[in-house]
Amino acid sequence: MCDDLTELDNAAYLNRRQFTALGAGAAALTVMPGCMAQTATGTAAMPTKSRAVTITTPDGTCDAVLIAPATGKHPAVIMWPDIAGLRDAYKTMGTRLAGEGYAVLVVNQYYRGSPAPILDSLTAWRTPEGQAKLKPLIAGITPDGTVRDAKAFVAFLDQQPEVDTAKKIGSCGYCMGGPFTVRTAFANPDRVGAAASFHGGGLVSDAPDSPHRLLAATKASYLFAIAKNDDERAPTDKDELRKAADAAKRPAEIEVYPAQHGWCTIDAPIYDQVQADKAWGRMLALYKSSL
């Protein structure tokens, strides 16, 4: 999770790193939904279209963005943003994924308390104003609520003209959204075929419904991309994930990346384009084989 200790780790790392063009990689990826993006290999992506949507859940009405190739039906993917929520950075990331041939639903996990955007960047989360806005909303998210949301999101996607319902659904999540990908697979075992967690927090705990304990009740394949400093703080988590996946007989790629927590989010100060592209490529490989 993106907490005070993680932020101190990242600040110290940035102070050590001589990186004169920190924002250049993120800027290069910035495209607006509906425009041409680029694939991970730099080739032209499919043209995309975007529309704002609302999804009725048992807990209210969730605002989200659906981004898909401009024509045809495609496998669907649910994208769970990091702690700062649905904002332009995640619309850009969703557009990039849609350009690879997926119908991407980028959701506002905080819909119970506020429509998106709540913050305009990840950096804003560390301000007193950002903390004051987000902490009550974070407290409103529960594991059971996330499972209810995931069921509603899948049901919604299966009714959309952009979605190929003959294909399995994927999920990806960042930071706090990492464990939500497992809960998505748990909520919809017959529909969700792949889940990718990037620097996810709270994947392993003593709770009976800890995400790693849910793998056996899913039918998905997994990618767990772990940050170096997260692994340093919880070095046995990767081993528990490995044991849980093996016991559940679920395919799972589990790797610690030489990058800091938050490295995959394009507006994060710690964004690492080289390692983010590597993780992105592994997600695409997962989706190609599992959806």
Automatic annotation (TrEMBL):
Domain spans labelled Dienelactone hydrolase: 63-289
Leader sequence segment: none
Keywords annotated in UniProt: Hydrolase
Pfam families per record: DLH
Source superkingdom: Bacteria
PROSITE patterns in the record: TAT (PS51318)
UniProt GO MF annotations: hydrolase activity
Protein name per Swiss-Prot or TrEMBL: Dienelactone hydrolase family protein
Organism: Novosphingobium cyanobacteriorum
